[in-house]
Specification:
The complex is a heterodimer of chains A (568) and B (355).
Chain A: H1 10-22, H2 24-31, E1 35-36, H3 43-63, E2 72-74, E3 86-88, H4 89-99, H5 104-131, H6 140-162, H7 167-182, H8 187-195, H9 204-234, E4 248-253, H10 254-279, H11 285-288, H12 307-315, E5 321-323, E6 326-328, H13 330-358, H14 374-393, H15 396-402, H16 407-446, E7 448-455, E8 461-466, H17 470-477, H18 500-514, H19 523-546
Antiparallel strand pairs in A: 1-4, 2-3, 5-6, 7-8
Helix pairs in contact in A: 3-5, 3-10, 4-5, 5-6, 5-10, 6-9, 6-13, 7-8, 12-13, 12-14, 14-16, 15-16
Chain B: E1 4-5, H1 42-45, H2 47-77, E2 83-86, E3 90-93, H3 94-120, E4 127-130, H4 138-155, H5 161-173, H6 175-180, E5 204-208, E6 225-230, H7 233-240, H8 244-249, E7 251-255, E8 274-278, E9 290-292, E10 297-299, E11 306-308, E12 314-317, E13 326-327, E14 329-331, E15 337-339
Antiparallel strand pairs in B: 1-4, 2-3, 5-6, 5-15, 6-7, 7-8, 8-13, 9-10, 10-11, 11-12, 14-15
Helix pairs in contact in B: 2-3
Classes of the chains: A mainly alpha (568), B alpha+beta (355).
The structure holds FE2/S2 (inorganic) cluster.
FE2/S2 (inorganic) cluster is lined by residues 281, 283-286, 300, 302-303, 305, 318-320 of chain B.
Chain lengths: 568, 355
């Protein structure tokens, strides 16, 4: 309404037109200058987001040519080895996209590679969020959304590679059908419902197609939007560093710096995906042949994100119960239904599990360096190790042929290792974290070694230690030394408090979580060290004056003497 | 706005670096250090360096544009079936390579250019912005609760329990008819899983999938293996318009020395050392293809379940729990191998009603 500024440019006029109707200036004024913190690890989520955008674009293109039909046709395209072969329209159109649509193969490969990157980037992004404690209050819900997104991404990817109806994907569907049938009570009906009757039927692909291009991407899109809105509203977490506190955000403004960087990064992800798709063949469906339920391509491996499930199914002992004319296939529902269910639940509930253990209900906007929360980091590594062991189990046949040992021996050892290796990983990780913390303290107090030697006037050689930069120091000093919980277990009269058992458990868990940790140096020790640094640098300066061969030494002398006691 | 760029906070340029102080801390025990001094980039101090960066970035964008034009040319000019040999990659589609290479390079250059632009020429001094409190004020909270109370009161939701309960009841039932609409997703299982094409008529001849011929016992030497289906299956499939029958009826025939056979699932189910077993794994239904004649074991490629065909198809290792179902064999008057009847049990993966 204001007439103070009359826009003259087309952009200005459009902006006024929009603002007259939607008050856009209100939101933009607040948001264009919004500050985003910067750290390389924050790009992992971006890769996932951009891969998703690439998937939407390339997927839309593929829908223009793909025919999700299980009607049989005789192939008559340009791929000679399959000419005259009976196959479904779905497979025939996949071949057409690969050979007879210019750029079709490129789009198929972009779509497939982007799917692999999508799930991969989400997974690693999740690791980042976990290990740095970014899931803590107030971001628990976003963590749950993330968990659901990873899960949906896996299902969506699986649906996608099942669609071309080649021999490989059909085998995956056969396994899906077998697992669906194993669900207690309703399994047979679930399977008949999914496939429109017996396997393979003629209904499944069109149904899967609707799920793959509409239902799941729709949900993913909605969740991604919610995910981003929350990040925007709650503001991004940041790494500890100079000037960073719990109450501020230090970084660059959304417009223009962040926009240029994030926008540019989208094009980089797009470019890299396209280049890989230009150079590296993925999922050559024409080599597998059409699906038929009585053939299988030997040594077929699913996409990487299905590997852990495949492995779980492989190493599960063959337990099956038969009672009252019913069959309960524990060998299937345990690894393929119960296990992934438990894994997802534990993952999604982790923020609350940790809150229960630590009693920490405060808001967290500064991230933890993984080494500074050794127990959480060790738990994460344990879970990842377990996951990787399942994944390795999915390759038990390849391991057996590579090492020329019996598949039975390999499978049995994997069953054992699955439960032995993760705890070992826990212990090792925790120790590494603690020693990294000690090293941090050491570096704070004594600087880092420069490898340069200095000869003192009386002939002695000492190594120059350079003090850490302000940035390095701030990162280390951002560590929080957490107190162990001490909840009441008895009331004032010495009688057990109502929640005594739970409180006792929490006290113990919290002490397990926090008790063994390395305290960082006190301000006094740091001041002393700083004083020491400047004192020695004076000595050094003199020495430099005397010995002209040392020029411009920015460092400091390290005298490993009385100051050693300052350390922890 | 409450933002500050630390350049404004009085850090001068050129004088001695202030010693770090460790006196500031937050209530969680962190020791907080202030922002360190901004270091200027070459592009900040040298006009020439800035110009060079500008040219570099514009060059990348221009080259990207050229790539895109070239990609259009490649679309129009590179024949879509041409195969080229490229070192390392081998034989690849020329169209895929040129289109992907050019579009990929172009987009990559836009990306790299934009980021370089941000890094070299846009401000790189860090900005500090305060976080707003996420929690609503007490006043806002009380007011919201008040609004709810008012609404609840005005609607009578709490004071008229009959309305409330009947509505909740109706809402609870609302999804049910919709769930029932899913009923026609599939046919009822009935006993479909218990029959295969082998039972369609007694004494069905057996078709060798490799040769397309009907199998006679002499076609199989000791140690040999044949993938087979019932005669007439292809016509049946044609008629049904699906591969459903094949998914249950596929079998393998192997021949061993009759005295090597430890057991069969019924008396005399082999024919002179030839045994017929379902090809569909009892684990989750992969077709089994690997046979080791020395041990008579059949290995499933999907999860490595192993079955001993000389011992009633027993599951000897792996996640499969049940033996492979066997077909009883005989020879008809013309000397062809036949399956006497259907399998005695459902083939393929387990299901709840299987028993
Ligand atoms: S399907 Fe044969 S072992 Fe799993």
């Amino acid at each position: 309404m204001s007439t103070s500024t009359q826009p003259s440019t087309p952009v200005g006029k459009t902006a006024r037109w929009v603002d007259d109707r939607y008050t856009t200036s209100n939101a933009l004024r607040r948001n264009l200058g919004k500050v985003f913190p910067d750290h390389w690890s924050f790009m992992l989520g971006e890769v996932a987001l951009y891969s998703f955008v690439i998937l939407l674009l390339s997927g839309t293109y593929l829908t223009l040519f793909f025919k999700p039909s299980m009607v049989d046709v005789i192939y008559n395209g340009t791929y000679v080895p399959l000419k005259g072969v009976k196959m479904t329209e779905a497979y025939a159109s996949s071949l057409d996209i690969s050979f007879d649509v210019r750029g079709g193969l490129l789009m198929r490969q972009i779509h497939h590679w982007a799917a692999l990157f999508f799930v991969g980037a989400m997974t690693i992004h999740m690791f980042r969020v976990f290990f740095t404690g970014a899931f803590r209050k107030p971001r628990e819900v976003n963590w749950v959304i993330g968990t659901v997104l990873v899960l949906l991404g896996i299902v969506e990817g699986f649906a996608g590679y099942s669609l071309p109806d080649d021999l490989l994907s059909g085998t995956g569907l056969r396994i899906t059908q077998g697992i669906a049938s194993a669900i207690p009570i309703v399994g047979t009906y679930v399977s008949f419902g999914l496939f429109g009757g017996e396997f393979p039927g003629t209904d499944f692909l069109p149904r899967l197609y609707a799920i793959h291009i509409l239902l799941i991407p729709g949900i993913i899109l909605a969740l991604v939007t919610a995910h981003l809105l929350m990040v925007w509203y709650q503001k991004h977490t940041q790494w500890p560093g100079p000037g960073r506190t719990e109450n501020n955000v230090v970084g660059y403004r959304f417009f223009p710096v962040y926009m240029a960087k994030a926008g540019g990064f989208f094009f980089i992800v797009f470019g890299v995906t396209t280049l890989i798709s230009a150079f590296v063949t993925i999922n050559p469906v024409w080599m597998f042949g059409p699906y038929t339920p009585d053939q299988v391509s030997a040594g077929s491996q699913p996409d990487w994100y299905m590997g852990f499930l495949d492995g779980a199914v492989r190493v599960m002992p063959n337990l099956e119960l038969v009672f009252w004319h019913h069959t309960l296939s524990l060998n299937l529902i345990v690894p393929a239904v119960v296990l992934p269910g438990i894994m997802t639940l534990l993952l999604g509930a982790y923020p609350w599990i940790e809150q229960f253990v630590t009693g920490d209900k405060r808001e967290h906007h500064l991230l933890d360096r993984p080494r500074n929360t050794p127990t959480r980091t060790a738990l994460g590594v344990t879970a990842i190790t377990f996951y990787l062991m399942l994944w390795v189990s999915g390759a038990n046949d390849i391991i057996a042929t590579t090492f020329e040992s019996s598949i039975n021996a390999i499978t049995i050892s994997l069953r054992i290792l699955l439960f032995v290796v993760p705890p070992i990983a826990f212990t090792i990780t925790k120790r590494i974290c603690l020693s990294l913390q000690r090293r941090d303290n050491d570096k704070l107090l004594h600087g880092h070694e420069t490898g340069r030697l200095l000869r003192l006037p009386h002939g002695e050689f000492v190594e120059i230690h350079a003090p850490l930069t302000q940035k390095e120091q701030a990162e280390i000093l951002g560590k929080v030394d957490m107190p162990v919980l001490a909840l009441e277990t008895v009331d004032a009269n010495g009688v057990a408090a109502p929640w005594a058992l739970v409180n006792n458990l929490r006290n113990r868990l919290s002490s397990w979580f926090y008790a063994i940790n390395v305290a960082k140096p006190s301000p006094a020790e740091l001041e002393a060290a700083a004083g020491h640094f400047s004192h020695v640098s004076a000595v050094e300066l003199e020495a430099t004056h005397r010995h002209r061969e040392f020029e411009a030494l920015g460092g400091v002398l390290h005298q490993p003497s009385e100051d050693e006691s300052v350390n922890h | 706005m409450s933002d500050t760029t630390h350049g404004d906070t009085g850090h001068g340029h050129g004088h001695e670096v202030e010693p770090i102080t460790y006196t500031q801390s937050d209530e969680r025990g962190r020791i907080l250090l202030g922002l360190d001094e901004h270091r200027s980039r070459r592009t900040d101090t040298s006009q020439r360096a800035a110009k060079r960066a500008e040219r570099q970035i514009a060059g990348m964008f221009t080259f990207a544009a050229i790539c895109f034009v070239a990609a259009i040319a490649a679309y129009l000019l590179v024949p879509k079936h041409d195969i080229v040999w490229v070192p390392v990659l081998g034989n690849v589609s020329a169209s895929n390579l040129s289109l992907g290479g050019l579009i990929g390079l172009g987009t990559l250059l836009i990306g790299v250019g934009a980021i370089q632009w941000a890094r070299a020429l846009m401000p790189d001094e860090e900005v500090i912005q305060e976080r707003h409190e996420l929690r609503g004020s007490d006043e806002a909270r009380e007011d919201t609760i008040e609004q709810f109370r008012r609404g609840a009161q005005e609607s009578g939701f709490m004071s008229r329990p009959i309305i409330r309960r009947s509505l909740l009841g109706a809402m609870a039932l609302f999804p049910l008819p919709i769930a029932f609409l899913l009923g026609d997703l599939g046919t009822a299982p009935d006993d479909k899983l218990r029959h295969t094409a082998w039972g369609n008529k007694p004494r069905t001849r057996i078709l060798n999938q490799g040769s397309g011929q009907m199998v006679r016992p002499e076609d199989l030497a000791v140690g040999g293996l044949i993938n087979a289906i019932p005669v007439g299956l292809t016509e049946l499939e044609e008629q049904e318009g699906s591969q459903n029958a094949r998914a249950k009826a596929a079998i393998i025939l192997v021949r061993m020395n009759p005295d090597e056979i430890k057991s069969t699932q019924g008396p005399n189910w082999d024919y002179e050392g030839i045994v017929a077993y379902s090809k569909i794994c009892t684990h989750v239904g992969c077709p089994i293809s690997l046979y080791q004649q020395r041990t008579h074991s059949l290995l499933c490629p999907c999860h490595q379940s192993t079955f001993d065909l000389s011992d009633s198809g027993r599951a000897v290792f792996g996640p499969a729990a049940r033996h492979m179902p066997q077909l009883q064999l005989d020879v008809d008057s013309e000397g062809y191998l036949v399956a006497v009847g259907d399998f005695a049990e459902p083939v393929g993966p387990s299901f709840w009603e299987r028993g």
